[in-house]
Amino acid sequence: MSNIDVDTLMSDFLHKSGGVALIDGGLATELERYGADLNDPLWSAKCLVNSTHLIRQVHLDYLEAGADIIITASYQATIQGFVAKGYSSEDGESMLRKSVEIACEARDLYHQRCRESSIDYTADGRVFKHRPILVAASVGSYGAYLADGSEYSGDYGNAMNLEFLKGFHRRRVQILAESGADLIAFETIPNKLEAQAFSELLEEGINIPAWFAFNSKDGVNVVSGDSLAECAAVADSCKKVVAVGINCTPPRFIGGLISTIKKVTNKPILIYPNSGESYDAQLKQWVQNTGVAEEDFVSYVNTWCEMGASLVGGCCRTTPDTIRAIHKMLPSRSASTPIAENLQSDSGRLMIKTA
Fold it and tell me: Which of 139, 178, 195, 290 is least buried, going by the fewest C-beta atoms within 10 A?
């Protein structure tokens, strides 16, 4: 992908999406609803081993809810994590590729269903409107691999350094970039050091763009205590980064975080918070009745868009119903968006065919 393609992919996509694009919601929440047991260090990536059909179904559920971007099941999929479970490095690399393949298959199947459907919207709320859809390859933080909740603290110890983090993530990022995804989603980035590591890795010949999504627990800084403004500035300085924002953060903090990000970047801002529930890292479960009701979550979205967010969706504990409700709130794109179809060229570039 050329520099021009990297520079224009997101702006072109947002234009064709009517100015605001819809990201999908929680993956693990839905996999568990379908019966998957994710009590494992691999978390949702466990399903890459033996339940790929469930991942594909969840992707389809979100597309039918109106999502314009689906995020792969690779957040906690690392080569090191698969090796620790007894798989070979080659197996781990294969699982990473598979995460992208599943999402692309779901997109293809969804577009086929759109072509076969005589209506754009069904009575039960499903969306079959043909539109551009992006596949974002998820890269979780080093803390996600540790599976000890440190992606919610950003505390990797005093011995942690930039070169270690780059070495940990390098091969994984290379594989995902070469697997057919449209962009890389660096998610739940808990500190400035890891943002810098991701930024430098993107300059090592990675040929697709990326977004950076940080997380916060106080509405001011990222979870490590590092300045969000400084972290967002790292993303802004990287030419491969085409959007900057926040994920897996309580909705009540989002407004202030958008204001901070806007001060340091003109790149599109993405917002996909969790439900607001608290996560108990020791019990490895979400604390019930600590979040916001779905209707309250959805009611925030217009405000976030008015403040400058142009990519919105949900993270942990949000569902296709959440995304469907957000879709219904967004301005209609039927009048301004041509019928579109995603085609992958040999170079892996997203091509958009209109008719």
Answer: 290
